[in-house]
Amino acid sequence: MKLAPGLEFPRAGTVTVAGEKVTKPVKIAGMAFQAPTLLPWRTTLENLLLPLEIVEPYRSQMRSRKVEFAARARNLLTSVGLRDQGEKFPWELSGGMQQRTSLCRALIHEPQLLMLDEPFGALDAFTREELWCVIRDLQAASKITVILVTHDLREAVFLADRVFVMSQRPGRIVVERKIDLPRPRDLEVTFTSEFTDIVHELRSHIVKARQ
Amino acid sequence: MNRTALLIRLSPWLFTIGLFVVWEAAVHIFKIPVFFLPPPSAIAQAFVDYSGPLARNSWITLQTTLIGFALAVGFGMLLGLLVGWSRAIYAGLYPLMIGFNAIPKVALVPILVLWFGIGFVPAVLTAFLISFFPIVVNVATGLATIEPELEDVLKALGASKLDIMRKVGIPRTLPYFFGSLKVAITLAFVGSVISESVASNYGIGNLMLQAQAQFQVPLIFAGLVVLAIEGIVMYAAMAILEKRMTGWAQRSGFAQA
Q1: What is the residue extent of each domain of chain A?
Q2: Is the peptide bond before A57 cis (omega within 30 degrees of 0)?
Q3: DSSP readout, B29-90?
Q4: Domain B40-244 is of which CATH architecture?
Q5: Which of A37, A93, A109 is the mutation pick for testing B, counting most B CBs within 10 A?
Q6: Does residue B40 contact residue B20 with C-beta atoms inside 8 Å?
Q7: Domain segments of chain B: what residues?
Q8: pTM for the whole thing?
Q9: B45 in reach of chain A (CB within 8 A)
Q10: How far apart are CA B69 and CA B189, in angstroms?
């Protein structure tokens, strides 16, 4: 999570993002975590605009294109089911809504690389599945690279093209598994035997890695 | 407004009036001499008799305090940001500041007099020196407690340290900062009055010292009352400012309950 966007650097080996060796923060990344980490003094809409106040070229256009940016933020909110919630403060939203906002903030500057660290971990099962679909659709629309860290095997299999199973301390890649389920994937796919077989297979790798 | 709410609104006034009533009664019942503990009625009389000097000197004390306080706010905010900016500066300055804060400020007044002569300047500086510490500590605390995840989000966007400070650090610090102003303003009064009573010809501190020399005990108490009122008014002003500037941080029902 920290190596890919260039927040930390490897002691051995190299990290390559978009064909370039990572030596400083990559600037094309968006990040979202298990906690929404929204700024309580900003409205939801203002929270979304935060990345635009930092990333160029938006940063220097913030004044002249403010209206356009706000419209973009509103569209993004609508796309995750938060229409007309922009004027509310984050603490007036439910946990699921805050997490959606956090995802929007990670996407507003159209990053090429989206880093998600258990973003649905704290949500209830139904909201989680809803947000799976949100991520699935956002990725299908923009074709960006998403790196998702999760403990939820169903989540991994449903969303990913490739799943890497890692061991705990030291974190090593135990196995890589390609997921060939056809896209677009519907939630119904999670109830097929094909899907459950992959989940089972991954689970057995993890059980082995934990021993 | 229901009865409980009305009672809560009135209770500060009822308690204050109650204190003065008990005080007045106690002085009469136990026949306490006026030069030992004057009753509130005698203090009120002193207010009438010395309204001119009281008004003049309380105005001077208020000005002294506010200038010292303003210096403390500016300097405290800057130093707090500096201390919060880097761990090395924090580690280096903290023992010095704690040591400095441990020095009783009344002990500094003679030095200030040596440098600046008696009067206005030492009083302003004493008010400043005594009140900047809580501001520094609070601003630095606000910066030190930024969530690391939020820092990562911004760094991954290529934000500089200054960006993080402006977008997150400073707004996040404001509730701590405004909270500290309530402490600092009361301390500033302590500072200016200490200095006035040791080394000045003006101000409420000096007035009380003169009243003591002339054994005008009700006037001494009138001076105390003036200080209490000024303290309450300024504290309330800071509290209102805090509420207006950082309403987002005061949404808990805990303190209201």
Answers
A1: 31-149, 152-211
A2: yes
A3: HTT--TTTS--HHHHHHHHHHTHHHHHHHHHHHHHHHHHHHHHHHHHHHHHHHHHHH-HHHH
A4: Orthogonal Bundle (1.10)
A5: A37
A6: yes
A7: 40-244
A8: 0.78
A9: no
A10: 9
Distance CA(B7)–CA(B11), nearest Å, equals: 6
**Which element (helix H / strand E) includes A49?**
helix A44-49
CB contact under 8 A, A40 and B248: yes
Is it true that domain A31-149 has CATH number 3.40.50.300? yes
User: Per-residue confidence of chain A (211 residues) as pLDDT tens digits?
Assistant: 888 888 888 888 888 888 888 888 777 788 888 888 888 889 988 898 888 888 877 788 878 888 888 888 888 888 777 788 878 888 888 888 888 888 888 888 888 888 898 888 777 888 788 888 888 888 888 888 999 999 889 999 999 999 999 888 788 888 888 888 888 888 888 888 888 999 899 899 888 887 7
Single-letter code of the amino acid located at A169: R
The answer to whether A25 contacts B168, with C-beta atoms less than 8 Å apart, is: no
